[in-house]
Every structure is written in structure tokens, then in C-alpha cells.
Amino acid sequence: MSYIQRIVFCLLLLPQLVAAASNPNVIVFVADDLGWNDVGYHGGDIDTPALDRLAKEGMQLDRFYTTPICSPTRAALMTGRNPMRLGVAYAVIMAWDNNGIHLDEHFMPQSFLAAGYQTAMVGKWHLGHAQQSYHPNNRGFEHFYGHLHTEVGFYPPFANQGGKDFQQNGVSIDADGYETFLLADEASRYIRERDKQKPFFLYMPFIAPHTPLDAPQELQDKYKNINTDLAPARSEQTDSTRRMSKLLLQPSARPMYAAVVDAMDQAVMQVLNTLDAEGIADETIVLFFSDNGGAAYSVGGADNHPLRGGKGETFEGGIRVISLIRWPGQIPAGSKLTDIMTAMDVFPTLTDAAGVAAGNQFMLDGRSMWPAISKAKPSPRTDYVFFASETPIYGHFNLTVFNDDWKLVQEVQQDQLTTTVTNHLFKINDDPNEYNNLAQRYPEKVQELAQLIRQWRALYPISGTRSQLIPPPGWRAPKDWATYPIPIEDLQDTPAPGMAPSETINRVLDMQHGERGRLVYDCETRWYLGGLCSKRY
Asked: What are the start-end ranges of the H helices in 193-306?
């Protein structure tokens, strides 16, 4: 090659090199119900070499928070917004629900797709299935391989409510093997066969280690003698299930749970090894976190010690989760971020890190944590974070509001004629494991924070998800969920207006609902508007 040819070649190659440096690949792994004490780098007794490797080569996000349950966390991740606004906060989207996330909401992969990325999802969706408009392929993912629902099992037929739920881009597929390993194979295939001229965004949400638990026999044998005498969770909802299980002489779920976690870690390692084999590990941001705290109740098998509580609860064990991020050369190896980061912060953080413009119409509730991650720039949390759950008991709400200093946990029990509120107040920096309830000592702080929770809950659309664990009477599931979403061409062009005959009447009715919730989407009540709501752009 002549000197001139070499110069021309370098000039032609330069834009690709710049793009590779400024637009890294992104992989987001999401575990389903992983416990705080269930990883090797926290001293757990389950083998997790892949996660331990990420902790060694990247950064531990030590105070990473999610909602206490599945769909709300995924909604927060995809939109950068609090799920209370979205109508998916108190409960997950069940098979018989017809709701999803409002189409005016912009999803993270849409921003990456607009920036020239290839986008793919491999795993569990759980953000709407009744209409094609809610489908992953219509929310920014060019390629979708996986399940629309949760609890599809780890072996064929991969079904929810008896209906088959395994597809590729809207077409039902048959696959034989262990679900976690099938996802790893597909993710690895996608990486190997990608367009190497463009960066990629890959979202890989596992169903592991969610119930119903199952694992290959060799892994079951590996953990058959694991310790099952776990420390108390120190929350009545979780510990009562453990006591009942022992009284009924039920076998512990811990050994099978450990086997499922081990298999998930193997899948993560397979994808990491694929990055190494392709020579792109240094060009790829890898983020891992659990969608909520471990399912520490009897059939869940998780261990969140020394954190209090577990999945479904707003104590730390339900919302403070395992999280790791790696980008060699950009994130210090073996480091730890002790600032609060939430699932809502992921969207603005990853777009900031990748140099991608976020295309949101609505104002984000999340913030970019990239300066704190990449430059160790302190990022204290003076504003408050809110999370909620009504799962699994209808009318029993677990609520929290917290920042770096204070945390209020409220358990609200609504019966037919009474409502009982139990308050737990913590100085969370001084008492991260929530041993000392200061509610009686600081009643004024309880009142202040409780009022913030009330105002926040008033944002909820009145038709949002609730904890309805069984379908409407007589409801039947489809034989194949890939055929279920109503096609776009069979839907109206705009969202349904509801019962109010005009927008003006709708806003008046919204005002009359007060703290009960919202009729007008994404509105906050304003006292200076006489109780009417105003849009938040």
C-alpha cells in the first residue's frame, strides 16, 4: 500500500474509530429477584464468578435502588420516569391485564436506535402484551427473542396461564433446553452476527431466579447441602411465610434457588466471554442489576441479609439491590459508588455515557450518574426517592420515601371500615440495616415525609395496576401469546378519551378526585390552579 493509499485508508477509517470510541456498545443485564447476600463478592455461599468478575473489573453500585416488584422497575428503567406517573407502580402487569406504558412515553432503546445503534432484547418483557403498540418491537427493539410474561418456567413449554409464551419478533418459536442457557446462546449469537459497523444496545432480562424454580440436575446436586438456616428477614410478611413453611414441614427452596442463580451467572459469563472473543469488551458498557430485592419468603429462597425485608416490601431488602457496571478504561476497576442511584437514573446515565441524545418528551425523574461513576464526582441525594408496592395482598400497601439522610417506610392496611398505618422512620446513613425505628422520637419528620408520600401517590392514574392475583371471572388465556396482541392496523389512531364528553369536563373530574388519583395523564395538581392539574414537560 502506497503512502497516499495509507492516508486515504486512515481517513476513511477515522469516523469509524471515533464512533467506536464515542458510542460504546451497551449491555443491560437484569436479574429477577436476586438477593443481596446471594453473590460471591458479598460473601454469599452461591458461586457467582461472572458477577464477581464484574465487581473486580468494574464498579459496585452499592446503593442502587429499584421498586419492590417487577413491572414497575422495568417501566422505570425503560422511561427514566417514576412508575407512579405511568400507572404501573402498585402491582405488575398480569396476563389478564390489557394495559401497558402510555405510547407518549419514550423508551430508552428508541433513543439508541435513533442514534444509529442496533437494538435487541433477549428475555422477559412484562411491560404490556394486549396490543401490538406495547410490544418490544414497537418500543425501540429491532430484535426481540423471549417472553412477554413472567413465570413461564425454565423448561418447555414456556407457558403462562397455559398459553405458550416464547417468540422471536412476534412469531411463536419452539425451543428445547434450559431457558437461561437459551437466552445466553441467543445473546451470544446476536453479538457475533451483529453489523460490526454499528454499535449495539442489548437488553437481557432473565427470568432467573424468579419462581417457579428449576435447574439442571447437576446444579441441583451441587447445592443440595447448602445452608438453609437463613437469618431472619426482620419483616412480618417475609418471616411469617418461613415459619409456616417449617410448621408444614415443607422442604426449603434455598437449594433450588442457589442452582438457578448459579445457572444465571454462567449465562452472564458466556456473554462476557463472547465480548472477549469478539475483541470488543473494552468498547462495551456492561450494567447488571436485580429488578428488586430477593424473594426471601419461603418459596422464593433468596437471602438479603443483613438488609431488612425482601421482595414486595419497601425495607432495604426489597429495594436496595445488587448492581455492577463495567467499562474498561472508563470506569475504575474494583471501585464502589456509595451514592444513591435508582432504576430511573439508568436511562439518562447510559445515554450520557454513550453520547446519545435522549429523545424524551416528558421530564425525566431520573438523573445522570455518569459524572459520579466515571469521575468519582460526589452526587449527594437531597431530593427524595419514592417507591411503592401493593403486592401480593390487595389493599396492603408498602410505601417509602428516602434520601441520603431520612427514610420513612409506611405499611398501610386498608380494610372495609378501617385503615391502619404503621410508620418506620430511619436515619438511613447511620442505620442502613434498619434496626432503629425513630418514628416516635421524631413525629414531625414522620408527618412531613408522610405528606410527601400522599402527594406522590396522588399522581397515580386511577386505572393503573392493582394487586389482582386472579383474572376477571371467566377470563381465558390464549393458546399462544404470540397471537394475542391486537395488530396496530386494528387499533384506533389515538388513545381512548374515556367516559368524559370533553377535555374540560375530564379536568374537572380529575380535580374532584383529589388525592385518589388522576384522570388526566401525567398531571400534577396545583393549588394555584384551584386544584386543577398541570402538565409536566
From this structure: 217-222, 236-247, 254-278
Q: Which three cell numbers stand for residue 271?
A: 456473554
Q: Measure the CA–CA gap between 212 and 67, rounded to whole angstroms.
A: 21
Class of domain 22-375: alpha beta
CA-CA distance, 145 to 363, in Å (whole number)? 31
Would you state the torsion angle of the CA atoms of residues 303, 306, 309, 312, taken in this order, to the nearest 10 degrees? -60
518 alpha carbon, distance to own chain's centre? 24
Annotation marks residue 70 as catalytic: yes
Radius of gyration of the chain (CA): 23
State phi, psi for 368 to the nearest 5 degrees: -75, 125
- In three state form, how does the secondary structure of 50-77 look? HHHHHHHHCEEEEEEECCCCHHHHHHHH
State the pLDDT at residue 507: 87
pLDDT tens per residue across span 225-282: 999 999 999 998 889 999 999 899 899 999 999 999 999 999 999 999 999 999 999 9
Neighbour count for residue 503 (Cβ, 10 Å): 10
Paired strand residues for 297: none
Tell me the domain boundaries of the chain: 22-375, 500-537
Could you tell me the three cell numbers for 344?
A: 430511573
Residues of the chain with pLDDT under 70: 1-22, 525-537
Cα 468 from Cα 212, distance rounded (Å) = 19
DSSP single-letter state for residue 461: B
- Catalytic residue status for 143: no
For residues 506 and 509, give the distance between their C-alpha atoms in angstroms, rounded to a whole number.
5
Could you say which of 102, 126, 135, 396 is catalytic? 126
- pLDDT recorded at residue 537: 52
Which parts of 357-442 fold into alpha helices (H)?
Answer: 370-375
Q: Is 397 helix (H, G, I), strand (E, B) or coil?
A: strand
Identify the active-site residue in 70, 149, 210, 396. Answer: 70
- Residue 23 is placed in which grid cell? 458510542
